[in-house]
Amino acid sequence: MNDLSKESVTWVTIDESSESQRIDNFLFKHLKGVPKSHVYRILRSGEVRVNSKRVDATRRLVVGDVLRIPPVRSSRPVDNGEPKAAAPQMLSRHILYQDDALLVLNKPSGMAVHGGSGISRGVIEQMRLEHPEFKFLELVHRLDRETSGVLLLAKKRSALVELHRAMREGETEKRYLTLVKGQWHNAKQSVKLPLFKYVTGSGERRVSVNEEGQSAHTIFTLKKSWPEFCLLEAELKTGRTHQIRVHLSHLGFPIVGDDKYGDFPLNKALQKRGLKRMFLHAGKMVLKHPLTGEKLSLEAPLPEDLERFLRHLDAE
């Protein structure tokens, strides 16, 4: 099933890893190098069959379905049979937890979770390269490129569906650590400010506090203070894009190192003091295992570069 781009008809029996997937998305993934327009053409013409019947592009696959896939030509290079070099284990050493349904990474800062927008390879693509034995591997949620910490990947479609449901229903707990500019006075503060997505004139995606936006709720807890900065724990009650960053910036407490919503002159000065990135770390996630229901408490230690900067503040 790894290479369906052949000169003869291919027959594929659907297993649990592809259950509930739309047939067009299944074909895009497995007919790599074949234009999407051609995939839709063979669907419309009836050359693709499921259980000997014609289907449309929105048909969702179920376990046991038998697909007939016609001969197609791929633009990929021909495999000459030579063994491929194993992908460097860049991310596998960052695995915090793994079983047959779930994989949890301590994502390094500076790596996007997926490719696109000029990024050839993100976390998900790299992990698939490092572990070709995984039949199914998908991101459960996302972290910003500069944010480090707990990142969930599903190794079964059933786990992915259940984790998405749990997140929608607010059944997961997500806690971040962040360092902000200024003096935060409340020991604990609940912030409910709606967030609105927009695109700048230069084409960059941004988020602002706006009554027309989606509801967003963050609970901030003060962990430690210095003359210029405060360390906060942020608990996400909703999961909007850039939620913590925009809530804090709007309140006048920008995250140090934030290149979109932060204090840019301060960020530049802090680089000379050793902080080269945004200080935002997904430190903890608590959830029920998607298949067994067992409670999981997943924690990622603060990275050394952020710990080092805090030690620097203590010494000043």
If you had to describe this structure to a student in words, what would you say it looks like?
- 21% of the residues lie in helices and 27% in strands.
- By secondary structure, the protein is an alpha+beta fold.
- The chain is elongated.
- The termini are far apart.
Distance between the termini: 59 Å
Contiguous uncertain segments of 5+ residues: 1-6, 76-86
Q: Tell me the structural class.
A: alpha+beta
**Roughly what percent helix?**
10-25%
Order of helices and strands: EHHEEEEEHEEHEEEEEEHHEEH
State mean pLDDT (0 to 100 scale).
89
The fraction of residues in strands falls at 25-35%
Largest sheet: 10 strands, mixed
Categorize the overall geometry. elongated
Q: Count the DSSP helices.
A: 7
Number of strand elements: 16
Q: Gyration radius, to the nearest Å? A: 23 Å
Layout: helices, strands, pairs:
Blueprint: E1 10-13, H1 23-30, H2 36-44, E2 49-50, E3 53-54, E4 66-69, E5 95-98, E6 102-107, H3 123-130, E7 138-139, E8 148-154, H4 157-168, E9 173-181, E10 188-192, E11 195-199, E12 205-209, E13 217-225, E14 229-236, H5 243-250, H6 264-272, E15 280-288, E16 295-299, H7 304-315
